[in-house]
Write a structure and sequence with these properties.
binds adenosine-5'-triphosphate, 24% helix, 8 helices, 343 residues, alpha+beta, 5-stranded antiparallel sheet, 6-stranded mixed sheet
């Protein structure tokens, strides 16, 4: 089944005095792979639980393909859910776990067998159908949990940090599997993670949540090349923050016009520039003279710290670049390399 559009309008949820989710207005496009990203406690799991119909929002509405699901029981909302822990039925076999939902729906015996068998094959679980789930590895258990959700052909697949308990190599394998499944089925997928690298790798769209609120929604590249706020830039590790001000659409720092255009109104602002967006040496762009203070080996590159008139700046250069601390150097800010955000 192909995916469905999911829309949240003014969605909020409190637990006592804690505002877990505040006024969330988001449209998750049909067929997208959306990462719900943010630090611990920002409201990701609460949002997912509301999408799944496990929690009722205090305010607002959630629709799937235009139909409100706020008062629809979780098993009828058209969503499939996989948690951090597989939560399989321990007394059932792999095959019985995967068939469970179909049996509940009174799907015919032959049809159930056909769908379960084909799902087990697809999940590299062929031959394990008769195993008790207690005899499986962590990765196999999580594949059974995925199979159990997907065999029902949900319109929306909801995944809450599904691989966080697996080791690094297995996580990479499972990400590839989930991405391939998404490509094959087109099922709208919402994937909760606190890991920015995982979100960038797996998703076509990221919804960043900070303190219960949406703090940016767009393709992964957007958060690198045009972060919507200082907080969003910091979450993605912007690298350099140059304080300054906007006057008539131009950003200046320490009286220097860095030729960065912005639509922001006049007032204090910060130019965020990733370490890899600054250039070492005089190339086309805004030259920034300074003194090389330190050099740090970072595995795939060197990170240089340069003292300049606009503050201490970090830039990445290839390993092997000839650098000598204490010497005068020139960095370049290429046109459009930074983003001006409100302070
Ligand atoms: N059942 C609950 N009762 C009380 N407070 C809750 C409950 N569930 C969540 N919260 C609070 O709501 C806020 C958001 O929690 P949520 O679990 O949605 O965040 P999260 O981003 O998923 O965090 P994590 O990555 O740590 O799972 C937190 O402050 C949390 O303590």
């Amino acid at each position: 089944m192909s995916g469905a559009e999911v829309a949240l309008t003014g969605v909020g949820k409190h637990f006592g005095d804690t505002a877990a989710v505040v006024d969330l207005d988001v449209v998750v496009p049909a067929g997208s792979f959306t990462a719900l990203l943010g630090p611990s406690g920002c409201g990701k799991s609460t949002t997912l639980a509301m999408l799944a119909g496990l929690l009722r929002p205090d305010t607002g509405d959630i629709t799937i393909e235009g139909r409100s699901v706020v008062d629809v029981p979780a098993d009828r909302s058209g969503t499939g859910l996989v948690f951090q822990k597989p939560l399989l039925f321990p007394h059932l076999t792999v095959e019985q776990n995967v068939a469970f939902g179909l049996r509940m729906r009174r799907t015919g015996r032959a049809e159930t067998r056909r769908r379960v068998d084909s799902m087990l094959e697809r999940m590299w679980l062929g031959g394990l159908g008769d195993r008790r789930v207690g005899e499986l590895s962590g990765g196999q258990e999580q594949r059974v949990a995925l199979a159990r959700a997907l065999v029902l052909q949900p319109a929306v697949l909801l995944l809450d940090e599904p691989f966080s308990q697996l080791d690094a190599a297995l996580r990479v394998e499972m990400r590839t599997l989930v991405k391939d499944l998404h490509t094959e089925s087109g099922t709208t997928t919402v994937f909760v993670t606190h890991d920015q690298a995982e979100a960038v790798e797996i998703a076509d769209t990221i919804l960043l949540m900070l303190d219960g609120r949406a703090a940016g929604h767009g393709p992964p590249e957007m958060f690198y090349t045009a972060p919507p706020s200082l907080a969003a830039a910091r979450f993605f590790g912007a690298g350099n923050e140059i304080p300054g001000a906007v006057r008539a659409g131009r950003f200046t720092a320490q009286g220097l016009d860095l030729h960065q255009e912005t639509g922001l109104p006049d007032g204090p602002a910060v130019l965020v520039v990733r370490q890899e967006a600054l250039r070492w040496g005089a190339v086309p762009g805004e030259p920034i003279p300074g003194t090389l203070e330190s050099v740090r080996f970072a595995g795939t590159h060197l990170v240089l710290q340069i003292r300049s008139a606009i503050g201490l700046l970090a830039v990445q250069v290839p390993v092997g670049t000839a650098v000598e601390p204490g010497t005068g150097v020139v960095l370049t800010l290429p046109p459009g390399a930074g983003t001006v955000v409100a302070a």
